[in-house]
């Protein structure tokens, strides 16, 4: 087709995906299974069902079924804020003077401010369907907590959020959004769980971490009748739900005859990146097309570019199963000056395996350069991006500038996962010139990696 | 047409309006002209051109031309964030159990978080075209300041924003968004202008007001070579630009054969309400269709429902022309406990005339009830509404509940002007149960009205 590409491509409701795509079905080397830390053996469905909803356990373990139907109730909810627009960044291209064509899939047009709602609503739906009373979770930057509180409010489920204490204090407004949706929110570590009390005794005054909040949320779920734990990233089930991002993008691009050469996403635990690239990766794995995939991570928390591919603990309290992933060690703490999300020590097992197989690249970028890209983007494209998303913007701009040098007319696609409205304290540091970069030393990483379990 | 109405109707780019609609052309009684406070005579184009850009002066004074073409550059910018979706509130209808059909036009999907960008980009464009260096303005809640900083950054214009001091302090993050777009921002009243110094001398420690910030911005514009003043509401030109809201809505509704019975909008200065209703009002004025229009204002600042229709000062410092409008008197100060915008003492001359002619109704609503409506809406429709927009939600819900009683299947349309991400301190008060209502006494209003000029 040669019709002019609109600024924003919105699919019609009848073009929205009706199944999620499970990339594991097409992977020759499957991601390694979760292990029971007690037995050292792969977790069974029965073991996992104490922590997760039954249907989600099935999705977590299924590496054979390529297309998993999206229940009608979830599709109805998706229609409230989807399709997300696929935007042609005409203004950014013009500003850069690049022959490259830049597209971004924008997931920030919903109150959670990010793509996290795609999986939150699915997890809340399955919890409700199982007749549960509620769910527990952790949140770091706060996007996931907001998304889950929205989803639970919609299905009238109780929602208990453990929020990393430093974020709880730095982001009082994020906290109020979560409260507005009726969720209970507790700064972590807290006195409400055994693991929280233990951590507080050991490190009084700690600001907490994602790994610690996970431990508390898991404990809270397993100790309350009718509760399960839900997680916003890393897990196979989460990447599965997030494939609506990539599926919509692929449909929109196919419709206009656009083929991306480079696909870029920021990567913390991998939910957005996995969701965006999975359908395209499927084509690559089946030999139908080829694409260059780039995962972008912060230089201050570089699990893919500087971590090891080993089994590790998923949480600080060691109450979760072990996962094989690129990791910096479960005790790795990104510098507190690193703003926003992308602070998790490990990476989704699916993405770890794809990266290890050479099917995807990874780059790490420094914080100040990321905010420079964010500001440049905001000024021409209007949208104020989340710090997380801005990692992808930075590399998309780098790639577009390379095209300017070589004259190549590449098509670049990146995921704009969300908006930065609740990250203005970080923008303030950037505006004030007080933001700094931090790169962990080899020694720090080695020390933390030394504590991964011996499997 | 009888095809199923989607959750969200997005027009195609080729269906977007190419002209703004000037409702004054179809009004039998024209809005009263601006008066020069010195001479008591209608302001001439020449007089106004010291304050406003030439092209905007033309638009301000033109009450004959019905359709005013939107320049191509502005239409290009509109495509970056428009069309705004027209949403069918299926979930809200279900929650209310009403036979009414509820639609809302959502203007919050852009970084300014509101409809304000529609006029900001137009005003910045004409300033650039005239070869100006920059513009000055005031902002209260901060939506307009954000929108203007975005528009100026796009056209590389200098932008100086006087922000009401109490908002400047209450909303540090709103301030940072404006800085991120490169604007200079000064808390008002300030020492940078004569009028500011005068007010500070008279009321040391004052938190400022919109009327005072307007005076400072106007002074700053007229004292700097190559600068003009721009305003985000009240003026005819602003309502004109905002008709993109109503025009898109009408096109979308016509396309699906939907006819609204009731059209509801919140009203501060009138920019959103005027923009939404103008094209429908045009049909009513031309006898082509009939609609019920409802302006919703806060009980704490009730210019339409409790003000007088007289000539009044537009600003505290009395540097602006006089406007005939429903007003509470230029010294009226809404209670500081009133959150968000909709704090201006007067109302657009166009809307004032339509209201006075009985073509539009008005209602005032109290703050706590507004936030109850906001929370209920957020929980089922997902979007976290701005306090301003929530006034319209409140009355839309009231109307839908009336339909539930009577069994009428009315079609209700309201304007959802923006998001509340930067108003979480107000949501916090609501969540904490510390929010209160305030209704000015008759005496307070009479006292303030006594100071309107004798014309």
UniProtKB/TrEMBL annotation, chains A, B:
Stretches assigned to the Tryptophan synthase beta chain-like PALP domain:
81-418
- What are the entry keywords? Amino-acid biosynthesis, Aromatic amino acid biosynthesis, Lyase, Pyridoxal phosphate, Tryptophan biosynthesis
Name the chemical reaction catalysed here: (1S,2R)-1-C-(indol-3-yl)glycerol 3-phosphate + L-serine = D-glyceraldehyde 3-phosphate + L-tryptophan + H2O
GO cellular component, as recorded = cytoplasm
State the top-level EC class.
lyase
Q: Name one GO molecular function term.
A: pyridoxal phosphate binding
Named cofactor requirement(s):
pyridoxal 5'-phosphate
SUPFAM superfamilies on file: Tryptophan synthase beta subunit-like PLP-dependent enzymes (SSF53686)
Q: Which residues cross the membrane?
A: none
EC number(s) stated in the UniProt entry for this protein: 4.2.1.20
Per the record, the pathway is: Amino-acid biosynthesis; L-tryptophan biosynthesis; L-tryptophan from chorismate: step 5/5
Asked if the Swiss-Prot or TrEMBL record annotates the protein with the keyword Amino-acid biosynthesis, the reply is: yes
Free-text function comment from the UniProt entry? The beta subunit is responsible for the synthesis of L-tryptophan from indole and L-serine.
Protein family according to the UniProt entry: Belongs to the TrpB family.
What is annotated about its quaternary structure and interactions? Answer: Tetramer of two alpha and two beta chains.
This protein's name = tryptophan synthase
Q: Which organism is it from?
A: Treponema ruminis
